[in-house]
Write a structure and sequence with these properties.
The protein is an alpha+beta fold. The chain has one domain. The protein contains four helices and three strands, in the order E-E-H-H-E-H-H. Strands 2-1-3 form a three-stranded antiparallel sheet, covered by helices on one side. The mean pLDDT is 86.
Length: 137
């Protein structure tokens, strides 16, 4: 009968030496679901983008001055009520690399808003079963 004793240390070198990456600035983050709040009321808008968040926010800001006949819900809110949005404090709700998962996350966050500006068609693909479960959480 051979018996061996093994010793090992819980204090490994990689527990002490950490090589962290620099954090990515909020506006440079990609593949996010985001929320923009209105400055004058409780309304909010939830969207998603695979591009840099700053690029998408900039598009929302500039859309009011475009000659397009169709306005976004954000532009309609700004024109009809004279309100503006808190562009600098846009909240990142979720980060998801895969497009379809990001769309589902967006639908869930749209559904959970209290005073959302998003169109109801934005959540049509979300099953009623999931909606009921999410409302109970």
């Amino acid at each position: 009968m051979c018996q061996k004793v093994c010793f090992f240390s819980m204090n490994k070198l990689n527990n002490f030496i950490k090589a962290h990456k620099d954090p990515i600035a909020r506006g440079a983050k990609r593949n996010v679901v985001y929320k923009i709040n209105c400055n004058q009321c409780e309304a909010s808008y939830v969207g998603q983008t695979g591009r840099n968040l700053d690029t998408r926010i900039s598009e929302h800001k500039k859309h009011i001055s475009s000659k397009s006949s169709s306005h976004s819900v954000i532009t309609d809110h700004r024109i009809n009520l004279g309100h503006d949005f808190d562009w600098d404090n846009c909240e990142i709700l979720d980060v998801e690399r895969f497009y379809n998962k990001r769309l589902i996350a967006e639908m869930i966050h749209i559904n959970r808003q209290k005073k959302g500006l998003n169109l109801q068609t934005d959540t049509d693909a979300l099953s009623r079963t999931y909606t009921d479960i999410l409302n109970k959480i």
